[in-house]
Write a structure and sequence with these properties.
The protein has 222 residues and is mostly helical. It has a domain of 153 residues. The chain contains five helices and two strands, in the order αββαααα. The protein is rod-shaped.
Length: 222
C-alpha cells in the first residue's frame, strides 16, 4: 500500500523528499500532466507535501482501505501484490499481467477488479466529503467565533471613537463658553470700576460742597 499511495500522490503533489533519495522505480514512466478540468472531482489541487504529512495521509488511507477491504481478491489485494512484486518485475504493464494471472486463480476477474476499484473510489470520495464537513465545522468553531469577536471589537472601537469625537466637540464648546464668560466678566468689571470711580467723584464733590457751605455759614450767619 505504501508504494501504491506514494505513486498516486506523486501524480498531483510535489513531495519533499530528502536530498539524495533515489526514486523507487527508475524504470517507471514520468507521469503526464493532468488536466484538472476533465479528470473529475477526485483529482487534488497542486500542492507541496512534507514527508510528515505524506506519512500521516499514507497511514490514514491505508487504514481506510483496510476497513473497506471487500471479501476475496479485489483492487486492494491487486495493488498490494503489485507493490510486492515491483522489485522483481520493474515493468508495470508486465507486472499487472502477472499479478492478474496469479489472482485470477483465486477468483479475480477483470470485471471484479474494475468494479472494486470503483468501490474504493467511492469510499475515498465519501471520506473526502466527511473531511470537508469536519473542516467546515472546525472553521465555523475556530474562525467564525473569532470573526464575530473582531466585529464586536470594531463596533466598540467605533463607538468609543464617536464618544471621543463628541467629547472633543464638548471640550471645544466649553472652551468657547469660557472665553465668552471671561470677556463678559471683564466687561462687567470695567462697568463696576467705572461706576465706582464716578460714585466716589460725586461723593467727594458732595462732601466738599457741604463742608464749603458749613464754612460759609459760620462766616456769614451771626
Amino acid at each position: 500500500m505504501s508504494s501504491f499511495f506514494r505513486k498516486a500522490v506523486s501524480l498531483f503533489v510535489i513531495l519533499d523528499e530528502p536530498v539524495g533519495q533515489k526514486p523507487s522505480d527508475q524504470s517507471a514512466p514520468v507521469p503526464k500532466p493532468v488536466d484538472t478540468a476533465t479528470s473529475g472531482p477526485a483529482v487534488a489541487a497542486s500542492a507541496t507535501m512534507s514527508n510528515a504529512e505524506l506519512a500521516k495521509f499514507e497511514q490514514h488511507f491505508d487504514q481506510l482501505f483496510e476497513q473497506t477491504n471487500l471479501p476475496g481478491p479485489d483492487y486492494f489485494e491487486f495493488w498490494k501484490t503489485m507493490d510486492t512484486l515491483e522489485a522483481h518485475i520493474p515493468d508495470e504493464s508486465a507486472r499487472i499481467k502477472a499479478v492478474y494471472a496469479s489472482l485470477k486463480i483465486q477468483g479475480l476477474t477483470k470485471q471484479t477488479l474494475v468494479f472494486t476499484a470503483g468501490k474504493y473510489r467511492e469510499v475515498i470520495l465519501q471520506d473526502k466529503a466527511n473531511f470537508e464537513a469536519a473542516v467546515q465545522k472546525k472553521s465555523q468553531a475556530e474562525i467564525a467565533g473569532r470573526e464575530s469577536e473582531i466585529a464586536k471589537i470594531e463596533q466598540a472601537r467605533e463607538e468609543k471613537r464617536r464618544m471621543i469625537e463628541q467629547l472633543q466637540q464638548e471640550i471645544e464648546a466649553s472652551a468657547k463658553q469660557l472665553e465668552t464668560l471671561q470677556a463678559e466678566i471683564a466687561t462687567e468689571q470695567n462697568k463696576i470700576e467705572g461706576a465706582q470711580r464716578g460714585y466716589l467723584a460725586a461723593c467727594m464733590a458732595m462732601v466738599g460742597k457741604i463742608e464749603s457751605d458749613i464754612e460759609r455759614f459760620q462766616q456769614i450767619i451771626d
